[in-house]
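Worked Example 4.2. Consider the chain below.
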Amino acid sequence: METKTLIDNYLDGPQLLRKAVAGMSQEQLVARPIPRKWSTLEVICHLADFEIVYADRIKRVIAENDPTLFGGDPDGFAARLAYHQRNAEEELKFTELIRKQVARILRTLKQEDFQRRGIHSEAAKLPEATATEIADQIRRWLVGTTELSDRGLPGPAYPARLAQAA
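Applying the procedure from the previous section yields the following structure tokens:
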């Protein structure tokens, strides 16, 4: 994927998510239509919490040679960081602001800078696709939610809205 398109997709993620959840009530945001699966608000909070992690990883890969990139426990974050007491709009704004800052940095890089790597503390060297995966993270969540709703389950948003967003 062309670098400009990758960065544009990265920047579009929060707006896609905002569009997908527009008009949802607090009750809909915290609903768990499938037992032991996250609510829409928990997904939004997870994305916001890990946006910081991804921004740190991107910056360290740019600034350092083969930095160690630390993992995080998504379920631990969800269990201990008050996801259902948080505000969806604040989380979306937070994610959007981080992405704007990181995108500004990414736009200054040379093409070869996108080949740099970090060493994950829980895995081997990260593949070159890492930047693409980060840029596409929100789209992947939206597609998963669309599949849930399309199977007739009481999903957190309407399939048509999600299909348009993704």
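The first strand starts at residue 68 and ends at 69. The chain is about 60% helix and 0% strand. Compare this with Example 4.1 before moving on.
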